[in-house]
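ok here's DNA-3-methyladenine glycosylase II, seq below lol
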Amino acid sequence: MTFPSAVSPRTTLFPLRRGPGDPCFQVDGDGAIWRTSLLYSGSVTARITRAAANAVECTAWGSGADEFLDALPALLGADDDPSDFTPVHPIVVDAHRRVPHLRLGRTGHVLEALIPAILEQRVQGKDAFRAWRLLVTKFGTPAPGPVPARMRVPPPGEVWRYIPSWEFHRANVDPGRARTVVGCAQRASSLQRLTSRPAEQAREALMSLPGVGIWTAAETAQRAFGDPDALSVGDYHVPKMIGWTLLGRPIDDAEMVELLEPMRPHRHRVVRLLEASGLAYEPRRGARLPLQDIRAL
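and the structure came out like this:
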């Protein structure tokens, strides 16, 4: 598959990776990206490599292979349109200059993006990644093809909705997040229809679900819809990073929203540019917060 300009599968796809032990996303010793997914036509495992500056090679296995290959251009950002993005802030201009090939991909699969975002609500990433790994490993299915060890295909909505409460507890997922996962899984079909709506409307529809707020909707829209404006308001790190990088001081959500308002409808693109360019900055201060373990409660 070729693109009209440079393409970077790693930069585009890494937001889909839920920690280093993600059973649905691994990178092998050759730098190839392995991804599993559950599509309409069935399970798929794909191996994606960069063949040239503007070309990507992909091999896929499983009953969902053809469907995955058809959707690969969108996954790698072929539909991303930054033509009206004109950065003004000098640091954002520099970030854009460093990674002009940044593309925002879209998976087109809402539940696969939504459930891990729910697991990441109000907890440290390490804890959420562990919960995702445990639940997908136990309730997912074996990945088709000659895959790296421990890879699994995420379960469908009808499996998520019937996971017992004690299994969420064992994964250190509190009852509130567990209820939200189950409630969203019960609406899997209607959630999938959101892919046909404009991204902003789809985000608003997601926020109508119990337990899904602006942060969870944004994290889902970034991945499922390739939404360039889905700003992660409520994130522990993003406002601080934006503040330190663009202003030299930490800021809160309200200040971040005001600062990035002139960059609408590309606020998420700005965040990704700063991260991908290496210009994002946030000083480390103090020890990490301890993980909350509910399993002993």
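fwiw The chain has a mean pLDDT of 95. kinda neat tbh
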